[in-house]
Design goal:
This protein is of the alpha+beta class and about 400 residues long. The protein contains 13 helices and eleven strands. The strands form three sheets. Strands 1, 2, 3, 4, 5, 8 and 9 form a seven-stranded antiparallel β-sheet that branches. Strands 6-7 form a two-stranded antiparallel sheet. Strands 10-11 form a two-stranded antiparallel sheet. Strand 8 and strand 9 form a beta hairpin. Helix 2 runs antiparallel to helix 8, helix 4 packs across helix 8 and helix 5 runs parallel beside helix 9. The radius of gyration is 19 Å and the shape is globular.
Length: about 400
């Protein structure tokens, strides 16, 4: 059974504008004094908190850990009178050049960004899946890249920017596309090719170091994993878990079956843009043919493709239920927009607070009234003590 780990990023927002507020360090100190220790880190902005899980084989244990952390985070946010949210972009924004975390690496990156740093207020979800070696990692990367648009369409969760509905499912993706190495990674011949081309990007000055490679999927420079970074931060732990188990079974399938069609980078990058724009209403490149296909038909093809791996990991029922839930109530972006359009930003604030712990035993209702917002609960213990090394990568 192939192991995986999850990195979740959260944004700390003020309760009035729902804009980032630089309280991340205060939250970090409290969280580190508790059960989470060094698994909790800061991020590029002082308004961010990142949590890296233990390494897991089983969905249930990963679910317990994510829910336990989110409950703790929600409790601390309540004490500080702020809102912690898993969303790819905040509802409103600030001048993020004034909020860069006091760490030399982040300061160096900010200098390289120049004027771009003002808008760099983004949260992601990163999934690490264990691979045997760098050669296996490159094979996995070449296979995973075909499914990146579908994975983004399923998890798009960044519809707002500066207090407005952007019309995009993932505005975070559009913000990130301005950077040197974002979007779909190229096809690589082997591990040596990956290493040479990555080092060349550093040598040219396009990126500060190998950990700054921003492709939507890459090899970790610190761990024996492939790291898929296409996902927006997710509203609920269940949505983060769906991203993780789909990614794990894609990697397992790619490494155990013949390769699919090689699709050009421009086709996949175009599909990523469409996924960011239209979510599950997009037409995407079919990974088997390259022809246009609806996002839902690609998602169905994905489940068929990785079905054996999902069964082997005991994840098939969870994935089936999760996809049915997205069909019924929408992606994170769709649900955010529905709440905002119907009830306004005050309701959105309350809803963010509730969805942070959705499905983890909270007694508060995350449903803003509609039956289609019924939560899906994961039957999990209240907390899992970290038992293995973190999969965090910079």
């Amino acid at each position: 059974m192939r192991r995986f780990g999850i990195e979740e990023e959260f944004m700390v927002l003020d309760r009035h504008r729902l804009a980032p507020v630089a309280l991340g360090e205060r939250m970090l100190r409290t969280l580190r004094d508790g059960a989470y220790g060094e698994r909790v880190t800061g991020e590029f902005l002082a308004a961010q908190v990142e949590y890296a899980t233990s390494i897991h084989r089983h969905l249930r244990r990963a679910a317990a850990e994510l829910h336990g952390f989110r409950r703790e985070l929600a409790s601390i946010a309540q004490d500080l009178d702020v809102v912690a949210v898993g969303s790819g972009t905040p509802f409103d924004a600030c001048d993020s050049s004034t909020m860069v975390t006091e760490k030399e690496r982040y300061r160096r990156i900010a200098r390289n960004f120049g004027g771009l740093v003002i808008d760099h207020q983004v949260n992601g979800l990163h999934v690490h899946v264990e691979v045997e070696d760098r050669e296996a990692g490159v094979r996995a990367l070449n296979g995973v890249r075909l499914w990146l648009p579908c994975l983004l369409a399923l998890t798009g969760n960044a519809p707002f920017w500066r207090g407005h509905d952007t019309g995009f499912a993932s505005w975070r993706t559009l913000i990130l596309r301005r950077l040197p190495t974002m979007g779909c990674p190229p096809q690589f011949a082997d591990a040596e090719d990956y290493a040479a081309r990555s080092r060349a990007l550093v040598a040219t000055g396009a990126i500060t170091d190998l950990q700054a490679l921003g492709w939507a999927a890459r090899l970790s420079e610190r761990f024996p994993t492939i790291e898929v970074r296409v996902f927006d931060a997710q509203l609920t732990a269940a949505e983060s878990l769906l991203a993780a188990v789909l990614t794990r079974s894609i990697v397992a399938t790619v490494l155990e079956t013949p390769p699919l069609t090689r699709l050009p980078q421009e086709i996949l990058d175009g599909s990523l843009w469409l996924a960011a724009r239209n979510g599950m209403a997009a037409d995407l490149a079919d990974p088997f043919t390259g022809d246009p296909a609806t996002a839902w038909s690609v998602a169905d093809a994905l489940v068929d493709y990785i079905g054996s791996a999902l069964v082997g990991h005991d994840d098939l029922a969870f994935v089936t239920e999760s996809l049915a839930r997205i069909r019924a109530r929408g992606t994170g972006a769709q649900r955010q927009v529905e709440v905002f359009r119907r009830d306004g930003p005050i309701a959105l604030r309350r809803w963010y607070t509730d969805t942070l712990t959705e499905g983890g035993g909270s007694t508060r209702s995350a449903a803003p009234g509609s039956e289609t917002f019924r939560r899906a609960r994961i039957d999990a213990p209240t907390r899992l003590a970290p038992d293995e090394q973190s999969t965090v990568a910079g």
